[in-house]
Design goal:
Strand content: 15-25%
Number of helices: 14
Largest sheet: 5 strands, parallel
Shape: globular
Helix content: 10-25%
Structural class: alpha/beta
Radius of gyration: 30 Å
Oligomer: single chain
Length: about 625
């Protein structure tokens, strides 16, 4: 065991004009008078060492610290990734993941409407550390995607951190204790209770709260009324008159899947939209029919090197199309020409629809949607494409502004969810709810935190995700950034942390300057601008996906404000008693840096954070 270290403080003598010196004499000098200024130095500044009597020595090895209690809210793609990476990257973390649903999966758990699938190829819409090579279809259906993410959660032990069917109703910061008090509700039995955490991380997703539109008379409608994100599995559309409101991703998927079944379909589209061939230019793109892989190709994927090469080539395409979002670029103009040609071909049965559907804003102002079968469905005789705005609902249907009532048996609202990126519950710190602080627009420091809300972090928060690239990779790099932050907090005795207002203001200024050069600021309504055409962009990172990954590799700790746990306020109190745990216990590798020369990569040499940990399995 390490000897008990008692610090004996000798009296401090102050001299004008020089640093105070302790007795005995400084260094090896035998002549103490050499350190005494002349009698003429009467106007010299008096400088003294700080009073160390207020410092309370912490008698523990530097790497022995109390657990860091962390709460993650949400168990979709982001929450699952956090559940895998945080325990691996943050020694001593005490992790809890709250999820309101009965299982993990987020949007893929909640959305079960006909035709739900990802418009990104499944081989890139998956984690980078757990690739699945044998996807049934190129563009996987929702159920298969859900199974994949649940399998990841099971393999990496995420379920042990989960509290399912548990709803977070709010969180409040206590600056005195440096803790978040989280108000929780068990959905099954309505039990309400509270827990405290050192750090709170929201991973609720971009579209975490679907909502019905607020048209007048909607409560009077007596037919089947549902939001597409709340699909009723018992609903049978065959032979019915059905209305679908909205032409975002869900509406565009629903229409071609309902059209062959229903007697008649009224499709209400408030805005025109671009229909792309593929999302990332990865090839011919989606069809309404499944894109099955050839058996010989799937067989070749059993070779890890061949599959790695295939995925790398495919995923690279998603990182190479950033130029298409730049205003006035040749790439964006090229998209416009390609899309008009493609849309005209798909609408050839009713070419007059093209003028109603082609937007006056450039491609990528709103998120692109391939929409296989969508345009073809609009040309069928049992579909009415309606651009006239809705006035109100009646008991039997919908009335548009021109006074026409269209009676239907069922109305499916694909009108999206909250697009303001505000949390669906109060988060209160320093007397203010973040939902009020984020008015008129959410403001963050590099998409991960916000001033005056200590120990609060976001995964895929406002301005946190690049427009190119892939979502899983960007979530992984953001969780990795958060892990580095939490290791600092855990190891260095930090009580509270938050980004400075000045750093956040500088980031905001950079964002606004960058976005002015992009098509996102054109006259379209999208989730990136909170549904406000020409409004401030908070849905994207100000740069490419490669750009944000580069930024996250080297955190700027100088942009943060820190408060230490030590009552003395000494920033080095976390140094402990001068020992490391492996020295005290006699266990562990004291020379972890020594490796065979042929195994040394000088770029990472001496930089691996886990090098020399007492527990090598962490």
């Amino acid at each position: 065991m390490a000897p008990s270290l008692e610090v004996e403080r000798e009296p401090v003598t102050e001299f004008p004009g020089i640093l105070a010196l302790k007795s005995p004499a400084f260094g090896d000098s035998k002549d103490e008078s050499a350190h005494v200024p002349s009698e003429n130095a009467t106007n010299a500044t008096r400088i003294s060492l700080p009073d160390s009597s207020k410092f309370e020595f912490e008698d523990h090895p530097i790497d022995v610290t109390p657990p860091l209690k962390v709460a993650v809210i949400g168990a979709g793609l982001s929450g699952i990734t956090a559940g895998v990476l945080l325990p691996a990257k943050v020694p001593g973390i005490a992790l809890t993941i709250f999820e309101k649903n009965g299982d993990v999966g987020g949007t893929w758990y909640e959305n079960t409407y006909p035709g739900v699938r990802c418009d990104i190829p499944a081989n890139v819409y998956q984690s980078t550390f757990e690739p699945r090579t044998q996807w049934t279809e190129e563009y996987a259906q929702g159920a298969e995607i859900l199974t994949y993410w649940q399998d990841v959660a099971k393999k990496y032990g995420v379920y042990k951190y989960l509290k399912l069917r548990t709803k977070v109703n709010g969180a409040k910061w206590d600056g005195t204790t440096g803790k978040w008090t989280v108000s929780i509700e068990n959905i099954e039995n309505s039990e309400k209770y509270q827990e405290t955490f050192d750090v709170l991380i929201t991973a609720v997703g971009r579209f975490n709260a679907w909502r019905l539109p607020d048209y007048p008379g909607i409560a009077d409608y007596e037919g089947h009324l549902r939001h597409s994100s709340n699909w009723d599995p018992n609903f049978q559309p065959a032979g019915k008159r059905v209305a679908v409101i909205g032409n975002g991703a869900s509406g565009i998927q629903l229409v071609p899947n309902l059209q062959p079944l229903v007697q008649h379909l009224d499709h209400y589209a408030r805005s025109p939209t671009w229909i792309a061939g593929s999302f990332g230019g990865e090839g011919p793109g989606r069809r309404l029919e499944p894109n099955y892989y050839a058996e010989e190709l799937l067989k070749s994927f059993e070779d890890p090197d061949k599959y790695h090469a295939f995925r790398k080539a495919l995923e690279t395409k998603f990182y190479g199309r950033f130029g298409t979002i730049i205003k006035g670029s040749e790439q964006n103009a090229g998209l416009r020409e390609d899309f008009i040609k493609l849309m005209g071909e798909r609408l050839k049965k009713k070419p007059e629809l093209l003028e109603l559907i082609v937007p006056d804003f450039p491609p990528n102002c709103r998120r692109l949607t391939p929409g296989p079968g969508y345009l073809e469905a609009l040309t069928e005789d049992n579909v009415s494409f309606i651009r006239t705005p809705i006035s109100h609902f009646t008991k039997e249907g919908i009335v548009t502004n021109d006074g026409i009532e269209r009676k239907v048996d069922a109305i499916i609202c694909s009108t999206g969810a909250n697009i303001d990126m505000l949390p669906p519950f109060p988060i209160i710190a320093n007397g203010k709810d973040i939902r009020e602080a984020w008015q008129p627009d959410p403001i963050t420091y590099i998409g991960v935190a916000t001033p005056s809300f200590p120990n609060l972090l976001f995964i895929q928060g406002p301005n946190g995700t690049g427009p190119s690239g892939t979502v899983p990779n960007q979530v992984e790099t953001q969780v990795t950034y958060i892990s580095r932050l939490l290791r600092k907090v855990q190891s260095q005795g930090i009580k509270s942390f938050s980004p400075s207002q000045s750093a956040t203001d500088d980031f905001t200024a950079y964002c606004d300057s960058f976005f002015a050069k992009t098509v996102w600021t054109d006259n379209c309504s999208s989730w990136a601008n909170g549904g406000k055409p020409g409004g401030r962009i908070h849905g994207h990172w100000p740069g490419s996906a490669s750009h944000v990954n580069f930024v996250r590799k080297d955190p700027r700790w100088e942009d943060w404000e820190w408060e230490v746990k030590s009552e003395s306020g000494n920033r080095f109190a976390w140094f402990g008693n001068g020992w490391t745990e492996k020295e005290v216990t006699g266990e562990g590798d004291l020379t972890p840096y020594l490796r065979r020369p042929d195994q040394i990569d000088l770029r990472s040499y001496h930089e691996e954070w886990f090098e020399g940990l007492a527990n090598p399995n962490i």
